[in-house]
């Protein structure tokens, strides 16, 4: 017994000195009490862990947004600010003019295009009148109507009329000269024909005389020289008459050529007019496109509010500033749309989120001692993962609708778009022991090949279709 007590004493560091029997028994009793207390505490803790439950939740951060998103006010071509009619935070109504761009350049371009179209219209009417051989120009009715009040259009009509008359007169003068030339040629032909007739009679007389001389020469009554002279005279007359006939033929050819020139005057005019009309039609199409574009820009000179709301992120602040093409000049936050919460849920937690799931919403930027939590429910879950442009972290976008009437609990606080929100999406109650045992159980099952490395594979498929 003494040896046993000494062994116990040495094991607890009592030194080499021997203890009394009473002291050793007290130490044993003390350690037994500690052991029993520890066992009792362990049993109590296990019982508590088995029966006590903890509420699990997926926690995600986000912000307040409007249900239909903010509306961008932008311009397709941009321009210079002529009037700035709103300020940051101003309340606007649908259709209200927010910015009026300077229309000086656009209106000048439109006036130039319209003037060019009027010139082409008047020119086309004149060309068509020349082509058709009309006595006067038939201008379009709208051009004539504006000519009574617009000096520019009136001068344009008068100028084309004068040009038409001048061109007609020039062609008629040219044709008159050619007709006069034809008449002269006919007179020349008449004179030549008379000369031919005279030569013909003269040849006939010479032939009669030559016949008599030949008879006399055959009787040796005249000399050969006289016969030879008459023969030469007859041959010369025949040659002269032939020359005159050739001249007549040449003159008749000139008549035909001149008459063709008369016809060519009108033909050349029609060819020229045809080319001009084709050019006018091509130019007309180009100018009409420019006019439509200028009129469209003039219609878009006013930037209007797409709906009722508040001006936010105004980018233009001065008259004469530039509105960048296709860049938002401001945002309109809808005033009538319901505010909802948009949070980013990590991919490993998305399997625990489903449509209609209850959510507790907290507002870290508000006074936590006075601002209560409000409830809501999941209304929509993104169909695919998105990526944060700054950090590159993947996430799912989840929208939460606050329960109707819960905003009244916030008192004077207003759920403005952009307000930070922390959402706690309840995923059910579990016992404490399940939290403690589950990691160990999963490790054992994984080592036994009972589960995969992806915990989502063992979670039932959730219906993510939001219900209204």
UniProtKB/TrEMBL annotation:
Ranges for domain AprE-like beta-barrel: 340-427
GO cellular component: plasma membrane
Keyword Transcription included in the entry's annotation: no
Record keywords: Cell inner membrane, Cell membrane, Coiled coil, Membrane, Transmembrane, Transmembrane helix, Transport
AprE-like long alpha-helical hairpin domain: residues covered: 107-297
Family designation: Belongs to the membrane fusion protein (MFP) (TC 8.A.1) family.
Protein name stated in the entry: Membrane fusion protein (MFP) family protein
The organism of origin for this protein: Methylobacterium oxalidis
Source organism phylogeny: Bacteria, Pseudomonadati, Pseudomonadota, Alphaproteobacteria, Hyphomicrobiales
